[in-house]
Write a structure and sequence with these properties.
By secondary structure, this protein is of the alpha/beta class. The protein is built from 6 helices and 8 strands.
Length: 263
Protein backbone atom coordinates (compact mmCIF):
# COMPACT_ATOMS: atom_id res chain seq x y z
CA UNK A 1 0.00 0.00 0.00
CA UNK A 2 1.41 3.38 -1.00
CA UNK A 3 2.09 6.01 1.65
CA UNK A 4 -0.77 8.32 0.60
CA UNK A 5 -3.30 5.47 0.58
CA UNK A 6 -2.07 4.23 3.94
CA UNK A 7 -2.42 7.72 5.41
CA UNK A 8 -5.96 8.02 4.03
CA UNK A 9 -6.92 4.65 5.53
CA UNK A 10 -5.51 5.68 8.92
CA UNK A 11 -7.53 8.90 8.80
CA UNK A 12 -10.74 7.04 7.95
CA UNK A 13 -10.17 4.56 10.78
CA UNK A 14 -9.60 7.42 13.21
CA UNK A 15 -12.89 9.01 12.16
CA UNK A 16 -14.76 5.72 12.66
CA UNK A 17 -13.27 5.15 16.11
CA UNK A 18 -13.70 8.66 17.48
CA UNK A 19 -16.99 9.75 15.91
CA UNK A 20 -20.03 9.94 18.21
CA UNK A 21 -22.45 7.02 17.98
CA UNK A 22 -25.72 7.92 16.27
CA UNK A 23 -26.68 4.45 15.03
CA UNK A 24 -29.67 2.34 15.90
CA UNK A 25 -30.06 1.92 19.63
CA UNK A 26 -32.91 -0.47 20.24
CA UNK A 27 -32.54 -2.88 23.15
CA UNK A 28 -32.43 -6.36 21.65
CA UNK A 29 -35.52 -5.61 19.52
CA UNK A 30 -37.65 -5.86 22.67
CA UNK A 31 -40.91 -3.95 22.52
CA UNK A 32 -44.43 -3.80 23.93
CA UNK A 33 -47.10 -5.32 21.72
CA UNK A 34 -49.40 -2.66 20.31
CA UNK A 35 -52.23 -2.34 17.82
CA UNK A 36 -52.67 1.46 17.90
CA UNK A 37 -50.48 4.50 17.43
CA UNK A 38 -49.70 6.09 19.74
CA UNK A 39 -50.20 3.41 22.36
CA UNK A 40 -50.63 4.01 26.09
CA UNK A 41 -48.24 2.43 28.59
CA UNK A 42 -49.17 2.79 32.25
CA UNK A 43 -46.33 3.75 34.59
CA UNK A 44 -46.81 3.06 38.30
CA UNK A 45 -45.57 5.80 40.65
CA UNK A 46 -43.85 4.14 43.62
CA UNK A 47 -41.29 6.93 44.15
CA UNK A 48 -41.01 9.31 47.09
CA UNK A 49 -41.13 13.08 47.08
CA UNK A 50 -37.42 13.43 46.27
CA UNK A 51 -38.05 11.67 42.94
CA UNK A 52 -41.53 12.89 41.98
CA UNK A 53 -40.23 15.80 39.90
CA UNK A 54 -37.79 13.62 37.98
CA UNK A 55 -40.30 10.87 37.24
CA UNK A 56 -42.80 13.48 36.04
CA UNK A 57 -40.17 15.12 33.84
CA UNK A 58 -39.10 11.81 32.32
CA UNK A 59 -42.71 10.88 31.54
CA UNK A 60 -43.30 14.30 29.95
CA UNK A 61 -40.07 14.03 27.94
CA UNK A 62 -40.87 10.62 26.48
CA UNK A 63 -44.45 11.64 25.74
CA UNK A 64 -43.09 13.96 23.06
CA UNK A 65 -42.73 10.76 21.03
CA UNK A 66 -45.44 10.30 18.39
CA UNK A 67 -45.72 6.53 19.06
CA UNK A 68 -45.84 6.35 22.86
CA UNK A 69 -47.96 7.81 25.68
CA UNK A 70 -46.81 7.11 29.23
CA UNK A 71 -49.71 7.41 31.67
CA UNK A 72 -48.69 7.86 35.30
CA UNK A 73 -50.88 5.80 37.64
CA UNK A 74 -50.80 4.86 41.31
CA UNK A 75 -48.04 2.40 42.07
CA UNK A 76 -48.83 -1.27 42.39
CA UNK A 77 -45.94 -2.13 44.71
CA UNK A 78 -43.58 -0.52 47.25
CA UNK A 79 -40.29 1.17 46.58
CA UNK A 80 -38.24 -1.39 48.49
CA UNK A 81 -39.88 -4.49 46.95
CA UNK A 82 -40.56 -3.02 43.49
CA UNK A 83 -42.40 -6.08 42.23
CA UNK A 84 -43.66 -5.96 38.62
CA UNK A 85 -47.26 -5.62 37.49
CA UNK A 86 -48.36 -7.40 34.32
CA UNK A 87 -48.89 -5.03 31.41
CA UNK A 88 -47.14 -1.93 32.76
CA UNK A 89 -43.99 -0.29 34.20
CA UNK A 90 -43.42 0.17 37.93
CA UNK A 91 -41.00 3.00 38.86
CA UNK A 92 -39.43 2.78 42.33
CA UNK A 93 -36.81 4.26 44.62
CA UNK A 94 -35.32 2.99 47.88
CA UNK A 95 -31.99 2.63 49.67
CA UNK A 96 -31.12 -0.67 48.04
CA UNK A 97 -27.66 -0.70 49.63
CA UNK A 98 -24.04 -0.02 48.71
CA UNK A 99 -24.13 -2.68 46.02
CA UNK A 100 -22.54 -0.64 43.26
CA UNK A 101 -25.50 0.30 41.08
CA UNK A 102 -27.23 3.64 40.54
CA UNK A 103 -30.17 2.38 38.55
CA UNK A 104 -31.71 -0.80 37.16
CA UNK A 105 -34.19 -1.46 34.38
CA UNK A 106 -35.72 -4.91 34.24
CA UNK A 107 -38.04 -6.29 31.59
CA UNK A 108 -39.86 -9.61 31.37
CA UNK A 109 -39.89 -10.76 27.77
CA UNK A 110 -42.20 -13.32 26.17
CA UNK A 111 -41.11 -15.68 23.42
CA UNK A 112 -41.91 -13.23 20.61
CA UNK A 113 -39.76 -10.46 22.05
CA UNK A 114 -42.76 -8.71 23.59
CA UNK A 115 -42.20 -6.98 26.92
CA UNK A 116 -44.89 -8.14 29.35
CA UNK A 117 -43.95 -6.12 32.45
CA UNK A 118 -41.10 -3.88 33.59
CA UNK A 119 -39.57 -2.07 36.55
CA UNK A 120 -37.26 0.92 36.95
CA UNK A 121 -35.31 1.26 40.20
CA UNK A 122 -33.07 4.11 41.42
CA UNK A 123 -30.79 3.51 44.39
CA UNK A 124 -30.96 6.13 47.15
CA UNK A 125 -27.90 4.62 48.84
CA UNK A 126 -25.95 6.50 46.13
CA UNK A 127 -28.30 9.37 45.34
CA UNK A 128 -28.02 10.61 48.93
CA UNK A 129 -24.27 11.17 48.41
CA UNK A 130 -22.74 14.47 47.27
CA UNK A 131 -21.59 13.00 43.94
CA UNK A 132 -25.00 11.86 42.74
CA UNK A 133 -27.48 13.93 44.74
CA UNK A 134 -27.89 16.51 41.98
CA UNK A 135 -30.80 17.30 39.64
CA UNK A 136 -28.66 16.43 36.60
CA UNK A 137 -27.76 12.93 37.82
CA UNK A 138 -31.32 12.22 38.93
CA UNK A 139 -32.73 13.34 35.56
CA UNK A 140 -30.20 11.32 33.56
CA UNK A 141 -30.71 8.05 35.41
CA UNK A 142 -34.50 8.23 35.66
CA UNK A 143 -34.84 9.24 32.01
CA UNK A 144 -32.54 6.45 30.85
CA UNK A 145 -33.84 3.59 32.98
CA UNK A 146 -37.44 4.37 32.12
CA UNK A 147 -36.54 4.32 28.41
CA UNK A 148 -34.98 0.87 28.71
CA UNK A 149 -38.36 -0.35 29.93
CA UNK A 150 -39.92 0.37 26.54
CA UNK A 151 -37.03 -0.97 24.46
CA UNK A 152 -34.56 1.88 23.96
CA UNK A 153 -30.82 1.33 24.39
CA UNK A 154 -27.85 3.72 24.57
CA UNK A 155 -26.53 5.98 21.86
CA UNK A 156 -23.06 5.88 23.40
CA UNK A 157 -21.46 4.00 26.33
CA UNK A 158 -18.27 6.00 26.84
CA UNK A 159 -18.17 8.16 29.94
CA UNK A 160 -15.33 10.57 29.09
CA UNK A 161 -16.13 11.69 25.55
CA UNK A 162 -18.23 14.77 24.65
CA UNK A 163 -21.93 14.61 25.51
CA UNK A 164 -24.45 13.89 22.75
CA UNK A 165 -27.24 15.85 24.43
CA UNK A 166 -29.24 12.70 25.20
CA UNK A 167 -30.07 10.85 28.41
CA UNK A 168 -29.28 7.68 26.42
CA UNK A 169 -25.61 8.76 26.36
CA UNK A 170 -23.37 7.81 29.27
CA UNK A 171 -21.32 10.59 30.81
CA UNK A 172 -19.48 11.70 33.93
CA UNK A 173 -20.92 15.21 33.48
CA UNK A 174 -24.68 14.92 32.89
CA UNK A 175 -25.39 18.67 32.88
CA UNK A 176 -22.77 19.21 30.16
CA UNK A 177 -22.76 21.24 28.09
CA UNK A 178 -24.60 19.93 26.24
CA UNK A 179 -26.95 18.47 28.86
CA UNK A 180 -27.59 14.72 28.90
CA UNK A 181 -30.68 15.11 31.10
CA UNK A 182 -33.37 14.67 28.43
CA UNK A 183 -33.95 12.76 25.16
CA UNK A 184 -32.83 14.18 21.84
CA UNK A 185 -34.27 13.94 18.33
CA UNK A 186 -32.45 10.70 17.54
CA UNK A 187 -34.05 8.99 20.55
CA UNK A 188 -37.52 9.84 19.25
CA UNK A 189 -36.55 8.67 15.77
CA UNK A 190 -35.41 5.34 17.20
CA UNK A 191 -38.69 4.89 19.06
CA UNK A 192 -40.53 5.40 15.77
CA UNK A 193 -38.35 2.69 14.23
CA UNK A 194 -38.98 0.26 17.10
CA UNK A 195 -42.75 0.80 17.02
CA UNK A 196 -43.33 1.29 13.29
CA UNK A 197 -45.18 -2.03 12.96
CA UNK A 198 -48.41 -3.06 14.64
CA UNK A 199 -48.71 -6.40 16.40
CA UNK A 200 -51.39 -9.01 15.81
CA UNK A 201 -51.85 -9.23 19.58
CA UNK A 202 -51.01 -7.00 22.52
CA UNK A 203 -48.49 -7.78 25.23
CA UNK A 204 -50.99 -8.92 27.85
CA UNK A 205 -50.69 -12.57 28.79
CA UNK A 206 -49.67 -14.88 31.59
CA UNK A 207 -45.99 -15.41 32.41
CA UNK A 208 -44.43 -18.74 33.41
CA UNK A 209 -44.65 -19.44 37.17
CA UNK A 210 -40.90 -18.90 37.61
CA UNK A 211 -41.36 -15.24 36.70
CA UNK A 212 -43.21 -14.62 39.95
CA UNK A 213 -40.55 -16.12 42.20
CA UNK A 214 -37.55 -13.95 41.32
CA UNK A 215 -36.09 -11.76 44.09
CA UNK A 216 -35.47 -8.61 42.08
CA UNK A 217 -33.16 -7.06 44.68
CA UNK A 218 -30.69 -9.98 44.60
CA UNK A 219 -27.99 -9.81 41.91
CA UNK A 220 -27.86 -13.61 42.07
CA UNK A 221 -31.34 -13.60 40.51
CA UNK A 222 -30.29 -11.63 37.44
CA UNK A 223 -28.93 -14.68 35.67
CA UNK A 224 -26.01 -14.73 33.24
CA UNK A 225 -23.95 -11.68 32.27
CA UNK A 226 -24.46 -11.36 28.51
CA UNK A 227 -23.02 -7.93 27.79
CA UNK A 228 -20.57 -5.45 29.33
CA UNK A 229 -18.91 -2.30 28.05
CA UNK A 230 -15.14 -1.92 28.20
CA UNK A 231 -15.19 -0.20 31.60
CA UNK A 232 -17.67 -2.66 33.10
CA UNK A 233 -20.04 0.14 34.14
CA UNK A 234 -22.77 -0.87 31.68
CA UNK A 235 -23.93 -4.47 31.92
CA UNK A 236 -26.86 -6.64 30.89
CA UNK A 237 -27.93 -9.93 32.49
CA UNK A 238 -30.45 -12.54 31.33
CA UNK A 239 -32.32 -15.19 33.28
CA UNK A 240 -34.34 -17.85 31.47
CA UNK A 241 -37.82 -18.31 32.95
CA UNK A 242 -39.11 -21.17 30.82
CA UNK A 243 -41.44 -21.44 27.82
CA UNK A 244 -39.29 -18.96 25.90
CA UNK A 245 -39.66 -16.18 28.49
CA UNK A 246 -36.78 -14.42 30.20
CA UNK A 247 -35.93 -11.67 32.64
CA UNK A 248 -33.51 -9.08 31.21
CA UNK A 249 -31.73 -6.71 33.61
CA UNK A 250 -29.83 -3.60 32.58
CA UNK A 251 -27.49 -2.24 35.28
CA UNK A 252 -26.07 1.29 35.50
CA UNK A 253 -23.07 0.96 37.83
CA UNK A 254 -21.67 3.86 39.88
CA UNK A 255 -18.16 5.13 39.29
CA UNK A 256 -15.85 2.51 40.89
CA UNK A 257 -13.76 5.23 42.59
CA UNK A 258 -16.86 6.76 44.15
CA UNK A 259 -18.08 3.33 45.19
CA UNK A 260 -14.76 2.56 46.92
CA UNK A 261 -14.89 5.84 48.80
CA UNK A 262 -18.56 5.36 49.66
CA UNK A 263 -17.95 1.96 51.19
Amino acid sequence: MRGSARALLATLLLVVITAPSYGNHNWGRYHWGRSTSPFTLKTGDNVGSAWDTYLNEAITDWNHSVVLDLEKVNGGTTGSACQPTLGRIEACNAAYGSNGWLGIAQIWVANRGHITQAVTKVNDSYFKTATYNTPAWRRLVMCQELAHDFGLDHQDERFNNPNLGSCMDYTNDPDGPPSNEHPNAHDYEQLEEIYKHFDSSTTAGALPPAAATVDLNAPSAWGQLVRSNAAGRVQTFERELGRGAKLVTHVFWADPEHDANHR
